[in-house]
Amino acid sequence: MKNFFNGTATAMITPFYKDGGVNFDALGKMIEYQIAGGTDALVILGTTGEPSTMTDEEKVAVMKFAVKKIAGRTKIIFGSGSNCTAEAVAASKRAEELGADGLLCVTPYYNKCTQKGIIEYYKAICGAVKIPVIAYNVPARTGVNILPPTAEELARIPNLAGIKEACGNMEQICETMRRVRPYCDVYSGDDNLNLPILAIGGAGLISVASNIAPKEIKQVYTYVTECKLNEANRLQDSLLPLIDACFTEVNPIPVKAGCEILGLDAGVPRAPLTELEEQHKIILRECIDRLGIIL
C-alpha cells in the first residue's frame, strides 16, 4: 500500500529520569515541540526510543500516554519489531489495540534469518493487524539486510506500507525503489541520505536529527517537494555537521545529549549505553548554536 504518510517522522527518544523511570512530563514537551515543528508522524519506541531496555509495562504506559497527548494531531507509529516473530506479532497487536496509526517493525536481529525468513516474518506481522506496517532495514544494527528482490515481495503484502531504508548503500536503495515503487513507499532512515532518497522518489524521512531540528528537517522535505533543489541542498549542507554530531557515538546517546542542550530534559540513556563524552558534547553544542535552534 502507498501513501500511509508523506513528509517527516521523528524517531522519538524516550526521556528517563536519572533514577531510571520514564519522564512523562519531558515526553509531553518533546511531543509538543515536534508538532509545533510541523512533523507529520511520531515514531514511538523505535530503536531511538530504547525499547530493548524497557519493560512491557513501561512500553504500554508510553504508548497510552502518547495516544492521549497527541490526540490525533499527527500520526502515531509504534515500534513493534523483535528477533522473535511471535513476540513481534504480539507487540504489533498490542500497539494496534492501544491506538497506533501504523507500526515500524525492524527486521529480526542477532538470529540472522534468511531472506525467506524476513518474508515470513513480515507476512506474520501484517497478517495479524489491519493497520499499515513499515519494514525497517538497518543491517549495521541487525546483521540482516532486506535485499531488493525481497523488498519487492514484501511490497506486495496488502498492508505493508513502506520500507525504512538505513542500509547506507544508495545503489541498493535505488534498486529497491525501482522494484517497490508501484506497490509501497520508501522512507529515508539515514539522515545523511535524506536528500538523495527524496530525490529518487522517497515518500518521506524517519529522522533521528529531527528530535533536535524538526523544522529544519521538515523544510528539506518541503523544498524537494516544491522542486527547489538548490535550497534543499543548501539546507541539507548546513544540517550535515549536526547530523554527523548526532552519530559520533551510538544512537541515541548523542541525540539525547542534544535534546538536553536544548532544554528538553531528555535524561540519560539506559545501561549499557552511557552518557555522551564531553568532547562530543562540545561539538554538538556548537552545531546547535550555529544553526540557531532554540525551543
List strands and helices in order, with pairings.
Elements: E1 7-11, H1 24-36, E2 41-44, H2 56-70, E3 75-79, H3 85-97, E4 102-106, H4 115-128, E5 133-137, H5 139-142, H6 148-155, E6 160-165, H7 170-180, E7 185-188, H8 194-199, E8 204-207, H9 214-225, H10 229-245, H11 253-262, H12 278-291
Parallel strand pairs: 1-2, 1-8, 2-3, 3-4, 4-5, 5-6, 6-7, 7-8
CATH architecture: Alpha-Beta Barrel
Q: Going by CATH, what is the homologous superfamily?
A: Aldolase class I
Say what the CATH topology is.
TIM Barrel
Overall, the morphology is globular
CATH class: Alpha Beta
Uncertain spans, ≥5 residues at pLDDT below 50? Answer: none
User: Would you tell me the overall average pLDDT?
Assistant: 97
Distance between the termini: 36 Å
Give Rg in angstroms. 18 Å
Main β sheet profile = 8 strands, parallel, barrel
Supply the number of structural domains: 1
- DSSP strand content: 5-15%
Oligomer: single chain
Give the helix proportion (percent range).
40-55%
Structural class: alpha/beta
Number of helices: 12
